[in-house]
């Protein structure tokens, strides 16, 4: 903490050059254009070689994150960063969540919100973006935004952020009641607030659907599709197995690392009553060639139009649903060690009596 305060002192004293809102905007516009051009190349690739090369030539989110952070880190007390920090967190989460020189960028953003921006009318989008940060302290920061900010619309956005963060605590009745209360507050105060290309009301409705249909302990909605071999896939047909349902895209953050984790998981669970099913938001030709090259060895359903992701209210990828032998959701998260622990826990449970 002392280092953080020293850093802010050096910036305020002019001993460290402050960042530039103009340059930050240019960097973000440049990265969006790179991603758009890359996406077009991916769609236009026809041969297997072209497709694999395009898939591997994704813009470097870490490099983008480093360049933007150079601008943000020296201006954390300035209100202009509130315009850009949400996109920084969403576009470069891997960079933002890792320690850099003894400091984690996402944690510094949390501290800046708490110290400088609790009452800003522009802090709402950042409070919502902070929900991706895997730090227990983030819910306290977001709660303080809701209780301290005089702007009713910001209070509503903060209420939605709190409802999203309370997912992490569990699905006990009291927590569910708190989440529903926060969602009601969010809709009453901020229904028409624009969040990206949608509204807060729609995000709240999506979260309400998740509570009612996609929470731990609920029977997973049936998901039906065909894999790349043309074989039908449905969750109900997989009853009796543990299903690890993974929504993913080739252009998601840290795609290579996620694909490696899933490939190892698939290999480690061969011969066990565990079925890894990917729901891939990519063109079928691209997916076929990734499978042919051995990069994606698990079974996948093509979801290039996003219909299945919408059914499961998946906005940010990757996202994992672990479903037990009876079709009940037992874990929701990311492809990480908790996914493995959840599966091992289910495998260790005694078989039900006949």
Question: How would you describe this protein?
Answer:
With 354 residues, the chain is an alpha/beta fold. The chain has helices at 2-12, 21-44, 48-56, 61-72, 81-91, 93-97, 105-117, 124-129, 138-148, 152-165, 173-190, 200-213, 255-268, 284-292, 307-311, 337-348; strands at 194-195, 198-199, 224-226, 232-234, 242-248, 274-280, 299-302, 319-323, 329-333. Helix 2 packs antiparallel against helix 3 (48-56) and helix 7 (105-117) packs parallel to helix 9 (138-148). The protein starts with a helix and ends in a 6-residue tail after the last helix.
Ordered list of secondary-structure elements with their pairings:
Elements: H1 2-12, H2 21-44, H3 48-56, H4 61-72, H5 81-91, H6 93-97, H7 105-117, H8 124-129, H9 138-148, H10 152-165, H11 173-190, E1 194-195, E2 198-199, H12 200-213, E3 224-226, E4 232-234, E5 242-248, H13 255-268, E6 274-280, H14 284-292, E7 299-302, H15 307-311, E8 319-323, E9 329-333, H16 337-348
Parallel strand pairs: 5-6, 6-7
Antiparallel strand pairs: 1-2, 3-4, 5-8, 8-9
Helix pairs in contact: 2-3, 2-4, 2-5, 3-14, 4-5, 7-9, 9-10, 10-11, 10-12, 11-12
């Amino acid at each position: 903490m002392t280092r953080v305060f020293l850093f802010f002192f050096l910036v305020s004293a002019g001993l460290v050059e402050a960042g530039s809102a103009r340059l930050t905007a240019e960097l973000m516009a440049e990265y969006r254009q790179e991603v758009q051009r890359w996406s077009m190349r991916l769609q236009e690739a026809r041969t297997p070689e072209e497709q694999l090369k395009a898939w591997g030539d994704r813009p470097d989110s870490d490099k983008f994150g480093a360049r933007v952070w150079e601008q943000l880190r020296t201006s954390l007390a300035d209100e202009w960063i509130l315009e850009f920090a949400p996109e920084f967190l969403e576009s470069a989460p891997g960079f933002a969540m890792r320690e850099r020189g003894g400091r984690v960028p996402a944690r510094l953003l949390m501290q800046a919100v708490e110290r400088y921006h609790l009452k800003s009318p522009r802090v709402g989008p950042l409070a919502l973006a902070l929900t991706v940060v895997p730090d227990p302290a983030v819910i306290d920061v977001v709660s303080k935004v809701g209780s301290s900010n005089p702007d009713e619309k910001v209070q509503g956005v903060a209420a939605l952020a709190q409802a999203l963060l309370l997912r992490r605590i569990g699905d006990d009745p009291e927590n569910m009641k708190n989440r529903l209360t926060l969602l009601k507050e969010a809709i009453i105060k901020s229904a028409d607030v624009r969040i990206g290309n949608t509204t807060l009301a729609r995000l709240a409705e999506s979260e309400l659907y998740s509570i009612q249909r996609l929470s731990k302990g609920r029977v997973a909605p049936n998901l039906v599709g065909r894999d790349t071999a043309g074989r039908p896939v449905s969750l109900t047909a997989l009853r009796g197995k543990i299903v690890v349902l993974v929504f993913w895209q080739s252009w998601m953050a840290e795609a290579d690392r996620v694909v490696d984790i899933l490939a190892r998981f698939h290999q480690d669970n061969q011969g066990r009553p565990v079925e890894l099913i990917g729901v891939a938001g990519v063109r079928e030709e691209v997916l076929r060639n990734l499978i042919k090259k051995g990069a994606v060895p698990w079974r996948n359903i093509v979801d290039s139009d996003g219909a299945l992701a919408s059914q499961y209210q998946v906005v940010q990828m990757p996202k994992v649903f672990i479903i037990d032998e009876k079709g009940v959701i037992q874990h929701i998260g990311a492809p990480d060690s908790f996914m493995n622990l959840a599966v091992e826990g289910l495998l260790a449970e005694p078989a039900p009596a006949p």
